[in-house]
Amino acid sequence: MNSNQDQVRIRPARASELPKLAELVRGRLPDLMKPNPATQRDSIRKHLAALLPDEALLLAIDNRKLSGMAALDLDHAKLLAMYLDPKQARADTARQLIGRVEETARGYGIQRLNCTVKPQAWAFMERMGYQATGLPDDNQPVDLSKRLFDEASDWEQQVARVHRELGIPANYGVKHRLKTVPEAQKRVSVGLDIFNRDTELAVAAADAWKAMRVDARQHDIELQLVSGFRGVHYQAELIRKKLASGQSIDRILRVTAAPGYSEHHSAEALDLTSPGITPLSQEFSMSRAYEWLKSQARLYGFRESYPNHNRHGIEWEPWHWRYRLNFDPRNR
Ligand SMILES: [Zn+2]
Q: Span 163-171, mean pLDDT?
């Protein structure tokens, strides 16, 4: 037996697990449903389902059994509820679950996390770095909060500094439901973009891109690179230029991701165009290239990140495609 198999694994909940989780919440976590205590099964499920795309519902899995669960309310920067199975949970499960919730919250740019706990959990939460926000009463639930930013990495602090400098609102990540994207360190050149700049991608994304371009050519479609990897500094410079040209930050952020939050940092995102099309324009959505990508790109692991009416409130970017490792391997 590998010792890793004995460890608690923390991961986001999946849609297929919702019926069981809803049952658990109904029986054990009435607090999670506070706005409507008489909640029925279906609405609990809906409530939990709303947390899935943001990876805000986290599970502790121990030997394939659920040993704990925690939820993050992004809009209120609140650790919502925590459940530990008294039989399955280990001493460390709560600490790991809370740590992962904090990591997720920091990813959305949340700098202070709040929670309300029963008096008996207060001492534990204090050890986790949470402090009472008001004058606590021994018999009442206690309001606590923790400054997450103190534990942010150098990179996260650097991103926050750039945001302050550019006047990007502190709730940017939460509002757009975007998480920070670390800069990829391992990158390879995939040749020149249409502006004759050297373009870099992560190794797997580079291989997939080359294979996809060859396949497209065989269907008489020419895919051209507009942009691949872009770092935080580059993204900040892009926004500085737009600010200097008189655009408001709100307007800019509808079409340009904030530094630290661009998928291009991952070196797995591509901006594409085709001959005769104005790069980075909606015109691309009418092209044969786009039509081909819509049906074929997923076979190479590429997905359109910001389709029309996406949940991030970002304008449609038909040219922007992101490589993901769990691509559909059929036809490869
Ligand atoms: Zn892009």
A: 95
Q: Which residues surround ligand 1, an ion (CB under 5 A)?
A: 271, 320
The rounded Å distance from CA 269 to ligand 1 centre is: 6
Distance 270 CA to ligand 1 centre (A): 6
Question: Could you list the residue range(s) of the whole structural domain that residue 280 is in?
Answer: 183-229+267-323
pLDDT band at 328 (very low <50, low <70, confident <90, very high): very low
Phi, psi of 224 (to 5 degrees): -120, 145
Cα of 153 from ligand 1 centre, angstroms: 25
Which residue in this structure is represented by tokens 């499960």? 93
Residue 296 sits at the vertex; the CA angle it makes with 189 and 258, to the nearest 5 degrees, is 55
Find all residues with CB under 8 Å of 1, minimum gap 6, and list them: none
CA of 241 relative to ligand 1 center, distance in Å: 17
CA-only gyration radius of the chain, Å = 23
* Cα 176 to ligand 1 centroid, rounded to whole Å: 16
| Together in a domain, 42 and 145 | yes
* Model confidence at 37: pLDDT above 70: no
The letter for the amino acid at 100 is R
Number of domains in the chain: 2
CA 239–ligand 1 middle distance (angstroms): 14
Q: Please report which confidence band the pLDDT of residue 41 belongs to, taking 50, 70 and 90 as the band edges.
A: low
- Residue 162 Cα to ligand 1 midpoint, Å, equals 20
Tell whether 95 is covered by a domain. yes
